[in-house]
Predict the 3D structure of the following.
Amino acid sequence: MNDRFLRACRREPIDYTPVWLMRQAGRYMSEYMEIRSKYTFLEMCKNPEVAAEVTLQPIDKLGVDAAILFADILLPFEGMGLQLEFAKNEGPVIHNPVRTKADVDAIRILEAEEATPYVMEAIRILRRELEGRVPLIGFSGAPFTLASYMIEGGGSKTYTECKKMMWQAPELWHALMTKISEVIVRYLKAQIQAGAQAVQLFDSWVGALSPVDYKEYVFPHSKYVLDNLKDAGVPVIHFANNASSMLELVKEAGGDVIGLDWRINIDDAIKRLGDDVAVQGNIDPMILFAPPKVIEAKVKDILDRVGKRPGHIFNLGHGINKETPVENVIALVEAVHKYSRA
Amino acid sequence: MNDRFLRACRREPIDYTPVWLMRQAGRYMSEYMEIRSKYTFLEMCKNPEVAAEVTLQPIDKLGVDAAILFADILLPFEGMGLQLEFAKNEGPVIHNPVRTKADVDAIRILEAEEATPYVMEAIRILRRELEGRVPLIGFSGAPFTLASYMIEGGGSKTYTECKKMMWQAPELWHALMTKISEVIVRYLKAQIQAGAQAVQLFDSWVGALSPVDYKEYVFPHSKYVLDNLKDAGVPVIHFANNASSMLELVKEAGGDVIGLDWRINIDDAIKRLGDDVAVQGNIDPMILFAPPKVIEAKVKDILDRVGKRPGHIFNLGHGINKETPVENVIALVEAVHKYSRA
């Protein structure tokens, strides 16, 4: 088995740097689009065979060192009582956004196998079909990121409603975050139980907050989730996007691996994080639109900055763009393997 | 005259911390909306009397310590040969985006008095009407931010076309940035000539870049602009939004004052910047949706973090939101004056 990814998570020395790509199963692949033409996005997520098939597509095609379950961070919402829809070209919509105490009280905390059985089934199928070729990563949105969708009713540029609740009704905010955190713990534990060999917590939008607000309104809840996964037996990746000014807090919240976006030099990040944690990242996902020569130079720059330090998983600094040319993705993966071996 | 803003720019000790707010002349004010109902946005910008009137609205109403010219960073585009439109609810559109060598070659570099006479006229009117009450700030978009609009043809989430040019055609990129930088130097010098008592360079979207790309593709051009303003006789504020991981580079590019967004603790930023530069910022603009008590606590936290260090101008970390309650803006300004005096 290619267990380089897991060994890098544990900061063990390995022969070359493992690489996987956030959103590697996605719309930039023609194989994905072919399946997507037959189903809605939610149908794909909820059909374990389809989710498993899509998860596997990039493994052979790209030569990546880990598989990540095809799913959406908002899948737990329906079990919580939220009406989720993926509207055409508009991203996710929550038709009953959470704004009041009654809304928070109404949120259900189910067992994950009951709320999202299809996710666990997809993981079981994948473990069989992967036959140990590469490890399988499960994931969840982090408390702030999930709360932001719930409160705003969808994506946001300003997080107005979300921040209003934080500052105007802090008790309600913390009650909501506590419920969300409990759902996340159950969701990730169930994924691990079903066979996920590592899990990633995605705090995609927490960069909207100042470090002071992060510490007061988010940190305790992310820490609760990560504390509860400490004994789960698999590595945990904590990715807080656009949070380079508060990396120390992100590390303190927890995680065996800290995910980094591309807005920081990886050697500067490593200096601040210290040697007792692995790092994942951190190339600009848009680099995949550059000529292969430029991609290779950027890969080499990141590998050089990391140097011989064990505990580096190569990844993009954010999800892959849907227009990305697949041949450039292959060139990136090859460059990581080639230069880190050298 | 209330010259606290200018004295803070020069890092002189003053009796209380001056404050102004990015986009302080704007849609959150009913007085603004009344005028806006009679003109399009571009008509307002191009009518010097109207631009001056709108610039003055927040001065008495809010009690801020500086006026900033009402204008848009894209106003120089028309003189450069670009077809600019502010489409309803869609933000700016450039109908002939810059993509090829022919497009870059076609860009004109006019004198700013010829390209944007109405801006200079508004400044002259304002200096008369302000009668020295508070200083007047002029401004321009920075090279990267202007290039991003030009190349994308409007706003962007991913800056795909912009980054494509950077990486696929670096010579073309640098040729474009060189032309833009020359236009900016002329534009800001003309504003100073007309009476602007300080100028701010807005690099609103440069946070889309990694520090390595910033250094190679942007830094030399921002530095060119800022070097050329060194002897212009007025303080220069350099605001690079979402760039807290590369503050040292932003400082090295230049500016008497470094603008900070809210994603970094201001004391951490000051530690990294050193004592030979003033700072401006850095409260989350969304804090204006919080209750006054919370606003006051956050203001006090920032002032406490700065302490007795001279050279702090209080501001938001980004432009004010159009839905902001005006009474909270007044509460913020009062809190800055009250706590910094204490």
